[in-house]
């Protein structure tokens, strides 16, 4: 699968010509338009980025060299002035954007807004240091989340929204990483309240197009949501029960598909459509995390056993599959969509986790069927609809699990046997596919 | 969005972004000016915080309580039914302080509500802590002069054993200064603290062997 846009476009144009969909001169015109030289603009952008990367550390180093000699009020003034400059720059770029609608201005607004947020957070940390306030990582993370959400909503910055989401995750997990509180599954005091205040605002803003529809933002929000659902919030997503992750992922996928089918009316449904598609992609990412968690649990890490909530996860996956199957576009009514395959991979992983929890078979056996096979299903799903991210992540997960098992398994013969059995089943599926394709071609003839 | 509304929105954003820092700086300076002066004994350690530079951790004597008397029992701990109970982490407590003959403030008793009578007290948060009833064993108490140690029991209606933090456990200094402080004998280091009327503490300065080692800056 070619990675660059130009290579993929040339491949598609050649394919369409061979099928008689377009004429050679049309292909040439499309290629000339899409792959036209963009002049010196990319070079200017690259040089501007280089200047920024040189000047910013230089200013930081100069201020740092004189920091000890500056009085506390002078330090505060310097930091506030830096923040004022960043916010003023964002304002000027936002005005230019509202006037000219230049796409590069959107990136400048985004970058400056994120920079202003970073300066505000650094100011708070440095004021705390000046007055010897004992570190409070969770309180700091909550403050950064609030500042990030405000910055994102006012400036419509996707970068600030991502910072806010990461801060919400840090407020849950603590900035000390795997501390004892996180391992016990405790969340920071008050973090839940702030998530339920900021999370929905960021979610709705991302979905409706007020913020750029980025699947990464929505994925982070889904991760925090997963953390806060259920009876006892878990400290870190890595320690969350896979059934909870897969429940949220399936419901988000169904919601994304439902919203993307809303007929366009007025000004905002196209944006809602983009947001819904981003939500569906984020949900697929969460499915991938859920499958990784199943593999981790099957290998014996994490410790949690399947509970009755697995039934909820299966119900959510079934509901999502039903919605996806019923709400497909008429043109694709008979086709197997990649998202349905993703749901099938999740269901398989969950089923294997459920069986492995009650079985005495070694983890080698279950890791193949609960980790590698679902990961390969994601590869097939990615290939089916040319989804490069899904294809790449599926391959990476397959490779990671295989290498991990080769390095860590105590029974390589069992591992090899399970892989061969899996390959045999896939071969049977391939033969069945070829037979079905011949029959369909025969009927058509 | 028209220009005026956009300008107002960005002015609001600037206010939101700088408000936490300015509020913290103003609040700490206010406490340094108005707080009551307290002198605390410490022991030090030497970690580094990648986010905030070099600092010393100040472990206070009043941060490790060994069976300190409790005036009132907290809710959720029924000492009539059992000998002791664990208190939840993060619970706010108030320690009544009194100066000894050397002018160093020691903890007199623990309260779970702020004292009303205007006595000197400091506000802290519990780490891991246990409340024991009168007569319950508290651990082994060492005796002076090489005599055999004896088991200690709670002599008050209730006793608290555990860790308390006051938000003044870190001192940030210029490069090299925290390490210099950590090489100093523990008994020579004293911390000057200002305690606000609500019991919240601010680190005001450090003295080493009776001489001023560091002083916290003020905005005014």
Could you tell me the mean pLDDT of chain B? 84
Number of domains of chain B: 1
Label the structural class of chain B.
alpha+beta
- The number of helical elements of chain A comes to 17
Helix content of chain B: 10-25%
How would you describe this structure to a colleague?
The complex is a heterodimer of chains A (445) and B (220). Chain A is an all-alpha fold. Chain A contains 17 helices and no strands. Chain A has helices spanning 5-19, 24-34, 41-65, 72-100, 103-130, 137-155, 158-173, 180-184, 191-208, 215-228, 242-260, 269-298, 309-326, 338-357, 363-384, 388-408, 412-444. In chain A, helix 5 runs antiparallel to helix 6, helix 12 (269-298) packs parallel to helix 16 (388-408) and helix 13 packs antiparallel against helix 14 (338-357). The longest helix of chain A has 33 residues, at 412-444. The radius of gyration of chain A is 25 Å and the shape is globular. Chain B has one domain. Chain B has 2 helices and 15 strands. Chain B has helices at residues 3-34, 177-182, and strands at residues 36-45, 48-49, 53-60, 64-69, 84-87, 92-99, 105-111, 121-133, 137-141, 150-153, 158-165, 170-172, 189-195, 201-208, 211-215. The interface between A and B is large, with 41 and 42 residues.
Keywords:
heterodimer, A: about 450 residues, mainly alpha, 3 domains, 17 helices, B: about 220 residues, alpha+beta, six-stranded antiparallel beta sheet, 2 helices, about 45% strand, globular, DUF2157 (chain A), transmembrane helix (chain A)
Topology:
The complex is a heterodimer of chains A (445) and B (220).
Chain A: H1 5-19, H2 24-34, H3 41-65, H4 72-100, H5 103-130, H6 137-155, H7 158-173, H8 180-184, H9 191-208, H10 215-228, H11 242-260, H12 269-298, H13 309-326, H14 338-357, H15 363-384, H16 388-408, H17 412-444
Helix pairs in contact in A: 1-2, 4-5, 5-6, 5-7, 6-7, 6-9, 7-9, 7-10, 9-10, 10-11, 10-12, 11-12, 11-13, 11-14, 12-14, 12-15, 12-16, 13-14, 14-15, 15-16, 15-17
Chain B: H1 3-34, E1 36-45, E2 48-49, E3 53-60, E4 64-69, E5 84-87, E6 92-99, E7 105-111, E8 121-133, E9 137-141, E10 150-153, E11 158-165, E12 170-172, H2 177-182, E13 189-195, E14 201-208, E15 211-215
Antiparallel strand pairs in B: 1-3, 1-13, 2-3, 3-12, 4-11, 5-8, 6-7, 6-8, 8-11, 9-10, 13-14, 14-15
Protein name (chain B): GDYXXLXY domain-containing protein
Organism (chain B): Methylobacterium longum
InterPro entries (chain B): GDYXXLXY
């Amino acid at each position: 699968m070619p990675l660059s846009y130009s290579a993929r476009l040339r491949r598609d144009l050649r394919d369409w010509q061979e099928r008689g969909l377009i004429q050679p001169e049309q292909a040439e015109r499309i290629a000339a338009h899409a792959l036209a030289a963009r002049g010196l603009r990319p070079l200017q952008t690259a040089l501007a980025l280089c200047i920024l990367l040189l000047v910013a550390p230089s200013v930081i180093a100069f201020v740092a060299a004189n920091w000890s000699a500056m009085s506390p009020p002078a330090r505060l003034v310097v930091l506030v002035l830096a923040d004022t400059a960043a916010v003023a720059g964002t304002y000027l770029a936002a005005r230019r954007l509202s006037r000219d609608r230049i796409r590069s201005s959107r990136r400048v607004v985004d970058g400056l807004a994120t920079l202003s947020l970073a300066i505000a957070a650094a100011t708070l940390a440095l004021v705390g240091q000046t007055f010897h306030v004992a570190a409070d990582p969770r309180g700091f993370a909550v403050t950064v989340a609030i500042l990030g959400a405000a910055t994102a909503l006012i400036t419509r910055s996707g970068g600030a929204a991502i910072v806010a989401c990461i801060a919400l995750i840090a407020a849950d997990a603590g900035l000390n990483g795997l501390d004892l509180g996180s391992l016990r599954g405790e969340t920071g005091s008050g973090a839940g309240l702030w998530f339920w205040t900021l999370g929905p605002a960021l979610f709705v803003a991302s979905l409706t197009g007020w913020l750029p529809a980025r699947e990464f933002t929505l994925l982070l929000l889904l991760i925090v949501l997963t953390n806060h659902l259920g009876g006892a919030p878990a400290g870190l997503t890595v320690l969350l029960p896979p059934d909870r992750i897969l429940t949220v992922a399936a419901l988000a996928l169904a919601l994304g598909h439902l919203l993307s089918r809303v007929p366009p009316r007025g000004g905002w449904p196209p944006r809602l459509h983009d947001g819904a598609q981003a939500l569906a992609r984020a949900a697929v990412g969460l499915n991938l995390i859920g499958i990784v968690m199943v593999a981790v649990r099957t290998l014996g890490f994490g410790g949690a056993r399947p509970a009755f909530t697995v039934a909820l996860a299966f119900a959510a996956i079934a509901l999502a599959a039903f919605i996806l199957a019923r709400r497909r576009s008429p043109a694709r009514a008979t086709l197997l969509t990649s998202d349905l395959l993703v749901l099938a991979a999740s269901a398989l992983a969950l089923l294997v986790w459920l069986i492995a929890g009650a079985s005495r078979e070694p983890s080698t056996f279950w890791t193949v069927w609960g980790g590698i096979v679902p990961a390969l299903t994601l590869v097939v799903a990615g290939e089916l609809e040319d989804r490069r991210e899904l294809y790449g992540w599926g391959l990476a997960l397959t490779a990671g699990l295989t290498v991990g098992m080769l390095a860590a398994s105590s029974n390589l013969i069992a591992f090899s046997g399970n892989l061969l059995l899996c390959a045999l089943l896939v071969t049977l599926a391939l033969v069945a596919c070829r037979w079905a394709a011949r029959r369909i071609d025969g009927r058509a003839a | 969005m028209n220009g005026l509304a956009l300008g107002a929105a960005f002015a609001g954003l600037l206010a939101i972004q700088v408000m936490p820092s300015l509020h913290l700086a103003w609040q700490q300076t206010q406490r340094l000016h108005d707080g009551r002066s307290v002198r605390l004994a410490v022991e030090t350690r030497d970690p580094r915080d990648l986010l905030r530079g070099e600092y010393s951790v100040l472990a206070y004597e009043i941060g490790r309580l060994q069976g300190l008397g409790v005036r009132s029992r907290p809710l959720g701990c029924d000492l009539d039914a059992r000998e002791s109970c664990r208190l939840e982490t993060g619970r706010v407590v108030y320690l009544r302080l009194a100066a000894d003959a050397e002018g160093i403030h020691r903890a007199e008793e623990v309260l779970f509500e702020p004292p009303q009578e205007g006595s000197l007290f400091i506000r802290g948060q519990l780490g891991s802590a246990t409340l024991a009833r009168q007569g319950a064993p508290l651990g082994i108490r060492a005796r002076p002069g090489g005599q055999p140690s004896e088991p200690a029991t709670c002599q008050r209606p209730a006793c608290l054993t555990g860790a308390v933090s006051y938000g003044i456990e870190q001192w940030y200094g210029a490069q090299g200064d925290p390490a210099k402080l950590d090489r100093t004998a523990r008994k020579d280091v004293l911390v000057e603290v200002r305690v606000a009327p609500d019991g919240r503490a601010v680190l005001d300065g450090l003295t080493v062997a009776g001489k001023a080692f560091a002083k916290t800056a003020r905005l005014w």
